[in-house]
């Protein structure tokens, strides 16, 4: 049994070697197909990372009048913590607000003149609140807008709507790119199937006399067909390995620029490090299925055993 399997693999490798340039073209087309798929996967991962980073920066800012006491502000914080979906609540005191303004105004001393004219801290305390989503932000805004807080809360700023516009536009644009990449992947996949079909047809023609001899000495149909199907496995495995090498090599070069452009929010190299086995494993499985179908169709059409 082991000897028969080894002979099958030897025959398969001979098929590939005898039609070397056809094998190169077939494998290259498979690589282009898998690179397109990997691009879609990477694009989806990058989009998710950008959106997650953008959503993590969204908050509701609540500004209090300078006359609001810490006790009153703590009562508001307690009420806000009871709102479903609320996340972290950061408290910025009046002193911290003044220190931030002074730090920002270092390059423009004229901005400090009004403070000296006033003679006291004109800033009030504020809150920076995180939430789980639009409904949670809406509930927080409603809570802050209640009549009992009108003498405490000077105003509020909800960043969710403006950021949601950015996220929606970003998703719309990347969705079009994603659809285009899938279309290209489909075209390359169709070409690859046709090339696999043709490669098996050529291999059958090249080995027609050997196949006849095999049948004369009693070889089973399975033994005759197996080398041609193993040949499709060789194409698939080679294509996935080359694709993985290109993806990891390319990301190693590109990731520093991506990290700098997106301020560290996008790390596709780490994503493929963490999920590469799953991604390329699924690509290998999908390629094997398509190639096996193409090979089986070619065998049923051209190999009469």
Description:
The chain has 305 residues and is of the alpha+beta class. It has 2 domains: 2-55 and 164-302, no CATH class; 59-158, 2-Layer Sandwich (Alpha-Beta Plaits). It has 10 helices and 4 strands. The protein has helices at 2-18, 20-57, 70-81, 94-104, 113-118, 134-144, 160-206, 208-216, 221-261, 268-302; strands at 60-64, 86-92, 126-131, 153-158. Strands 2-3-1-4 form a 4-stranded antiparallel β-sheet. Helix 7 (160-206) runs parallel beside helix 10 (268-302). It starts with a helix and ends with a helix.
Termini gap? 21 Å
* Number of individual domains: 2
- Strand sequence of the main sheet, in spatial order? 2-3-1-4
Residues in helices, as a percent range: over 70%
* Percentage beta strand: 5-15%
Low-confidence stretches: none
Number of strands: 4
| Estimated radius of gyration | 32 Å
Shape: elongated
SS element count, helices: 10
Largest sheet: 4 strands, antiparallel
Instruction: Give the helices and strands as they follow along the chain.
Output: HHEHEHHEHEHHHH
**Secondary-structure content class:** alpha+beta
How confident is the prediction overall: mean pLDDT? 76
